[in-house]
Amino acid sequence: MPLLTQEKALRSLRKTPGILRAVLRGVDQQTAVSLTDGPDGWNVVFIVCHIADYETIYTERVQRILNEEEPQFDSPMDNDEMPLAHRYAEQELSHMVGVFEERRRKFIGLIEGLDEEQLARRGYHPASGYGTALDYAINAALHDVNHIEQITKALKIGEGF
Description:
- The protein has helices at 6-24, 29-34, 44-67, 81-85, 93-112, 116-120, 133-154, and strands spanning 122-125, 129-132.
- The longest helix is centred in the middle third of the chain and has 24 residues, at 44-67.
- The chain is 63% helix and 5% strand.
- It has one domain: Up-down Bundle (Four Helix Bundle (Hemerythrin (Met), subunit A)).
- Strands 1-2 form a two-stranded antiparallel ribbon.
């Protein structure tokens, strides 16, 4: 049995919205825009916008993997361009959490419906090489962990490693 499976990826993907809501419990818009993860860091709203944007990117990549033979992916906008292009500074925290949750439901629905052959299909990204549909599901879950930790750092919850 493989170490990383569809079931494990789905279990982690399903947990993130609840964990995110728990971390953000009691955080109002003013706090979310005023606290950052460092002097040049992002505020909480920007981080939530970012994970919501990446949910769309992961979904689109898996859909292309399923519909094309080894599609090649472009890099998304860089981390300085995306907040401007998607107007992160104008977004409401509660709205963006809801956007993320809806996009995550869509991504989970996509991954849930895949069989072993589909999970093994792959695409190519110039920075990271070949990745399967399952790899993108696992990467999405790991991306969540990185950014939830970033939020806890901004909110000064616990101590980082």
